[in-house]
Amino acid sequence: MRLEQVECDLTVIGGGLAGVCAAIAAARQGRTVALVQNRPVLGGNSSSEVRVWVCGATAHGLNRYARETGIMGELFVENQYRNPEGNPYLWDLVVLEAVNAEKNITLYLNTDVHEVEAQGSREERTIKSVTGWMMGAERRITFKSPMYIDCTGDGLIGFLAGADFMIGREARSQFQEEWAPEVADGITLGSTMLFYTKDTGKPVRFLPPSFSKDITATSIPIRRVIQSGDSGCHYWWIEWGGEHDTVHDNEMIRDELASVIYGIWDYIKNSGQFDADNLTLEWVGSLPGKREYRRFTGDYVLNQNDIVAQREFEDGVAFGGWSIDLHPPQGMYAEASGSKHLQPDGIYHIPFRSLYSANVSNMLMAGRDISASHVAFGTTRVMATCAAIGEAAGIGAALAIQYGLTPRQLYQEKLAELRQTLLRADASIIGLRSTDERDAARQAKVTASSVQTRLAVEQPGDACPLAGDVALLLPVNPRLDGIEFLLDAAVATELIVELWDTGRKENYIPHDLIGERKVSVAAGSRQWVGVDIRWEPDEPQNAFVIIKANPSLSLYHSTEPLSGVLIFFRNEDSDKNPDLGDYSPDQLVTRWGMRRMARQPFCFRTGEPTNAYQADHVTNGYHRPYGGPQQWMSLPMKEGKPEWLRLDWEMEQSLSEIHLTFNDDVNDDLINLHHHVTPFRIIPELVSRYRLEYLNGNGEWTKVVHEAENRKRKVIHRLEQLVKTKALRLLVEATSGSRTSEVIEIRAYGPDTD
Ligand SMILES: Cc1cc2nc3c(=O)[nH]c(=O)nc-3n(C[C@H](O)[C@H](O)[C@H](O)COP(=O)(O)OP(=O)(O)OC[C@H]3O[C@@H](n4cnc5c(N)ncnc54)[C@H](O)[C@@H]3O)c2cc1C
Question: What would the pLDDT profile of 686-724 be if each residue is shown by its tens digit?
Fold first, then answer.
């Protein structure tokens, strides 16, 4: 065995999405990072070895404007461009390339960390080093650094270091959680292997192996198999091991899962219940994808009540939005639905205190092993949320190293800086405004070539009969002074409209009723009908306008979207399959569905000009929709005539770094693997071609950047030379399809920025 020692600022153990994002985040803060992964591929459960698709706060479109930004957002957007078909090997490449792009990261693949040197009392331990064995290379490597992040999922590093942890289900009384059992037990979610099938174009035989199970002789509900169809991607419920030890019994669990997969495939091929003659197995997982094991105890344990109440934490560093999604202990053998879901009214917040160990002073954790109760873990465990948590832990670790603090001291002494650093990195944090004093853009006067002041979409597409209640969400800034709808009326009738607020700025549900109007409508088609409904809220926010069902009326979808405007359809019944997922019908978010019509709002127009798209929104400190679109939007662009944004300062500025954040429609639910639904390789609103110019001492505009093929949301331009100027402008020459030019944020930094 070759013995080696590596010294760096930070060691991240585990190369799932949490570990990848933690490593990239810390590397971008200038820290040297060893990323140590025991398998040959990065991505953890999302990798081509396991093939779980990455879900996150959008909850597949249930939560609006909820897609993660920051590193996870970059991965989603890049994958959409390079891999819109959702090929798992190409996803592996997207993740690997993101790591390779960071010169501060040294990647150790195939390196299984299984020794930890730690010292100190049980209450106050410190990790001195971790040691791993590199498979196939006979290298034994010891990693030494002042800080470590356990992203192993199972939590082996913290366990060996003596970190306090929880496992199984806590009793209801521990965190007063409604969904917790009365009595604590050791049950976890089980593990799963998936499979892929393909059509060979000609009949192929399948002879089951000797170990496959006759699934008709098991308690697996056959209706569930029939409903899942012939694609292995729908068999996430082949889950087992929750009543065992998902780590120590891993081998036994794999064998059980394999016996059922081949048994199900035997049933699909040979029972005559499926049209499967030409189908063959293309890939079968061989590693059980693990859902749950240790959860470390931090200074705060996130629990069900925090999720449901969407509790705001002073140390909120990330958000999630997947439902609390718990599965029956017997897994695939359970008669009960494969999962049960509790969906809060919108996205929820995750505190930094849940991301570091309470008793190992130099250890953070990210991913499924964070400090959350079993019930709260039921939502934080999805991978885009694990990734957002990873970014927060990575930045937290980087700052702690920079200041020579423990993560707890960082929370106590540098919390504001931590959160502002996350914002500056475009991380998944919401409701927080930038107060970055080093950002000169915040002092500038912002003007634009044009501003969209009409709140209207008027190009009719398909008619939409008002078979059920529908709703339109629009920004109210500063007031709503009546609204008109384009509609057909088969007979003379009444249009009933309700105006609601959304409660919280990150929510997209009807919360408090503001007013209701009934309007007489004459028979006729394509008529604009005005509703005299008014609202001037204390501060700008969204209105949720419900248009009540009326079989005589049809609204028109628009052929063009408008950022900040959404539509909803009221679902009387959950469209989910109750055998697979048990969704409580009283959950507001699930009641108001969006279908895939988000980009085709109803034709409407308002009379009053809106301030929702003002130029100075690019420096208002918000980096994503929050009670309104929080962006600049120009009027439709004219061929060959760029739209521009201009920053003017009274005093000359020295600028070395410009940050641009473009609109990549965080409402669109980008999915990394199968089930791709987004039709665009690049989000249409993303600015594709632009120039940055500054005003030189002779009063001439001088170009410093010309980007011709942008497809990123956040771009950082480090200028080759220091620019001294009193004015800077961004000229948008083209977008990826949208007619308007849209920018969310501009930041400008001088050379004192590290
Ligand atoms: C079948 C299944 C279906 C699921 N469904 C979804 C879904 O649809 N969408 C979704 O987003 N989430 C889903 N989840 C949950 C999600 O996959 C996990 O919670 C998530 O992978 C956790 O991310 P992570 O980075 O913490 O851990 P992991 O993805 O488990 O990654 C941890 C990595 O660390 C490595 N590692 C472990 N120990 C060591 C060590 N000692 N040394 C070095 N490296 C180590 C592992 O090899 C692994 O690559 C599902 C999980 C399973 C199993």
Answer: 999 999 999 999 999 999 999 999 999 999 999 999 999
Which residue has its alpha carbon closest to ligand 1 atom 26? 367
For the segment 491-512, what is each residue's pLDDT rounded down to a tens digit? 999 999 999 999 999 999 999 9
Question: Atom 48 in ligand 1: which residue has the minimum CA distance?
Answer: 44
CA distance 150 to 113: 11
How far away, in angstroms, is 593 Cα from ligand 1 center? 29
Choosing from 20, 35, 42, 45 the residue with most ligand 1 atoms within 8 A of its CB, the one to mutate for a pocket test is: 45
Residue 356, both tokens: 């570091």
* Pocket lining for ligand 1, CB < 6 angstroms: 13-19, 36-39, 44-45, 52-55, 112-114, 132, 151-154, 156, 191-192, 236, 289-291, 367-368, 381-383, 386
Atom of ligand 1 at shortest distance to CA of 157? 41
pLDDT given for residue 462 in this prediction: 95
What's the predicted TM-score (pTM) here?
0.97
- Closest-lying ligand 1 atom to the alpha carbon of residue 45: 29
- In degrees and rounded to multiples of 5, residue 625 shows phi and psi of -55, 140
CA distance 592 to 594: 7
For residue 464, the number of C-alpha atoms closer than 13 Å in the C-beta half-sphere is: 24
Query: What is the per-residue pLDDT for 123?
Result: 94
Q: Which atom of ligand 1 is nearest to the CA of 192?
A: 1
The Cα-based distances of 60 to 173, 261, 409, 596 in angstroms read 32, 26, 37, 11
- Å from CA of 154 to ligand 1 middle: 9
pLDDT confidence bin for 513, thresholds 50/70/90: very high
- Tokens linked to 252: 């036994």
Say which residue the tokens 């954040």 belong to. Answer: 661
Query: Higher pLDDT residue, 225 or 566?
Result: 566
Ligand 1 centroid, distance to 14 Cα (angstroms): 9
Task: Read off the pLDDT of each residue in 569-594 and give the average, rounded to a whole number.
Answer: 68
Q: What separation in Å is there between the alpha carbon of 290 and the centre of ligand 1? A: 6
Please, which residues have CB within 8 angstroms of residue 647's CB and are 6 or more apart in sequence? Answer: 441, 444, 445, 446, 619, 727, 728, 729, 746, 748
DSSP labels, 337-392: -S-EEE--SB-EEEEGGGSBBSSBTTEEE-STTSSB-HHHHHHHTSHHHHHHHHHH
At residue 345, what are phi and psi to the nearest 5 degrees? Answer: -70, -5
Strand duo 524-535 + 460-466: pairing = unpaired
